[in-house]
Amino acid sequence: MPAGLLRRVGALLYDVLLLAALLMVATGLWLPFTRGEAITPATQPVLEWVYRLMLIVLTVVFFGLFWTRSGQTLGLAAWRLKVEREDGALLTWTDTVIRLGAAVLAWLPAGLGFLWILADRDKRAWHDRLSHTRIVRLPT
Which residue, 33, 70, 83, 103, is most buried by CB atoms nearer than 10 A? Predict the structure, then answer.
């Protein structure tokens, strides 16, 4: 059964909080290298790009480890949801990268691509369609 908007938003909120905590810890580990100063393009242009790349890699790894092993992040599991490919298989790392990239595109126009769930007959967002994945509700 396809997952509705409210369940997906609930799971997303859980996952965003967990990811934010992970990214804060990772950012804290950079402080000795910057002497406690913020990383900015004006003060450390190369380090800023390395830092941004690290944040992107951690985000991909966070979702990828969950999605490729069980199809469930902690947020998805709490809301009894699962992400899967259209054929029902677990996502691959390539699927993960495509889904996350497509999610950025879905959120860019003020979240319209995510709200598309309300209009789509299969309750799929733009990033679901673009990545050939879906979020399903698990039985009780």
Answer: 83
Q: Which helix (H) or strand (E) holds 77?
A: helix 74-78
Mean pLDDT of 18-30: 95
Q: Tokens 């007959």, residue?
A: 121
Structural domain boundaries in the chain: 5-137
Q: Count CA within 13 A, CB hemisphere, residue 6.
A: 0
Residue-wise over 38-57: b if at least 16 C-beta within 10 A, else e?
ebeeeebeeeeeebeeeeee
Q: Is the pTM of this model over 0.85?
A: yes
Asked if 61 and 68 touch (Cβ cutoff 8 Å), the reply is no
Q: Report the C-alpha gap between 14 and 7 in whole angstroms.
A: 11
